Structures are given as structure tokens and as C-alpha cells.
Amino acid sequence: MAGTDTSAISVQWVIAELINHPKVFKKLRDEINSVVGPNRLVRESDIPNLPYLHTVVKETLRLHPPSPVVLRASIEDCQINGFDVKANTRMLVNVYTIQRDPNLWKDPEEFKPERFAANHNTNSSQMEMKGQIFNFFPFGSGRRGCPGVTLALAVVQSSVAVLVQCFDWKAKDGEKIDMQEGSGFSMGMAKPLVCYPITHMNPFELGLDMAEPE
């Protein structure tokens, strides 16, 4: 479940947000075109050179974390901030609420990838997703954080880059996508994402090079 379902759902959320925010979509495509050019498909090796793609994915994970609630349990009696915590106590950490807390984020309900741009952050470590900044930890934190962070980001970022590079995405009758969350551990969309791809660049027809260089 964590290996495939969460990554697929995250890609859906990114595409849905991009459909609802065409200016962000255009800015992301412009970045891909400037780095990759018109003669080949984006490669995984291009991803580090696409900083705006990173901000788009991070902002999506802030609003729609793969796991909205993180479960932790104490293995022995301890004291945290003056509170006694007994051994085997289970605690549910509401990641979804923390990442939308107006005390921690400006305009928390709005989709603003620029908030993760390097020049917008006084703390550069906030750009990371290792769980050390406790207002943004979509993959959990500590030794029990998600072990597949690197793989998940590689899959999601590469998939989104290709989908943006090759297609325009339209909702039915030009309507906006309903962004209401559904139930479940990985919090997918309440209504299935229905959108229509319009070919922008077809690598198969143009015979573009899709392979990584030797």
C-alpha cells in the first residue's frame, strides 16, 4: 500500500492542483522547456535542475500529505514537556492539521508553491523532507519516518514532469477539480479525478530520445 498507492494518489493531487492553477502549470512547463528543451523527454537526471517542480510537489504534499495521521507509541515511561507518558501509550499526530495551521503558515489553505522557494525561507532546512522541521513532515519524522522518501519523490516528480511536458490537462466543461478529501489511510480524493489529456508533445511520434545517456 505504501509503496504504490500513496505515490499514485500524490500524483493525482499534483495534477488536480495544476489544473486548478493554470499559471502554476505554465510556470512549471516553462521551467521544464528551458532545462530539457523541445527535442527529448524529461529524464530522472533532469529533476535536480527543476527547482520549481520541487516546490510544486512539496506544496501539494503540505496540503495533501500521503498519510494525514502518523501513529507513534512510547516503549517506556517518559516525560514530555511536563506530561507523564506511560509505556505503550499510542499517540496520533495530525500531520494534515499541522501543515495547514494558520499559526505556522501564511494563507495555509491556498496553493502557493513559491512558499518553498529557497529565497522565501529563512531556514534552508525547511526545503528538506526528513521530518526535522515540525511544521512540514509529510513522510513522518524520526527513526520511524517513511523509509521510501527518496523513491517516492523520484517517482512522483518524474511522473509529474512527464505529464506536464507532454499534455495539457482539462477538466470537464472547463470546471475546476473538486479538491475535497476522502477517507482512508492515504487520503485520496473524495471524487475520482476525471480529466482529459490534450497532446502537447508526443515523444513517440517525434521519435524523441527517452533513454538516459550512457
- CATH homologous superfamily descriptor: Cytochrome P450
Estimate what percentage of residues fall within beta strands.
Answer: 5-15%
The number of distinct helices, counting runs of at least 4 residues, comes to 6
Report the C-alpha radius of gyration, rounded.
Answer: 19 Å
How is the CATH topology named? Cytochrome p450
Strand order of the largest sheet: 1-4
Low-confidence stretches: 121-127
Name the average pLDDT: 87
Provide a short characterization of the protein structure.
This protein has about 210 residues and is an alpha+beta fold. It contains 6 helices and 6 strands. It is elongated, with a radius of gyration of 19 Å.
Topology (elements, then pairings):
Layout: H1 5-20, H2 22-36, H3 51-63, E1 69-73, E2 78-80, E3 83-85, E4 90-94, H4 95-98, H5 149-166, E5 167-171, E6 195-199, H6 203-206
Antiparallel strand pairs: 1-4, 2-3, 5-6
Helix pairs in contact: 1-3, 1-5
Can you offer a commentary on this structure?
With 214 residues, the chain is of the alpha+beta class. The chain has a single domain, classed as Cytochrome p450. The chain has helices spanning 5-20, 22-36, 51-63, 95-98, 149-166, 203-206; strands spanning 69-73, 78-80, 83-85, 90-94, 167-171, 195-199. Helix 1 crosses helix 3 (51-63).
